[in-house]
Amino acid sequence: MRTDQAGTGGTVEARQLEHFVTIVDEGGFNRAAERPHVAQPSLSQAARALERDVALFHRLGRRAGLAEAGRAMLEPARQVLRKAEFARAAGARALDLAPAAELRISLVHRPVPLTPAAQRFADLALG
Question: I need a labelling partner for 79 at 20 to 30 A (CA). Which of 6, 62, 120, 123 fits?
Answer without folding.
Answer: 62
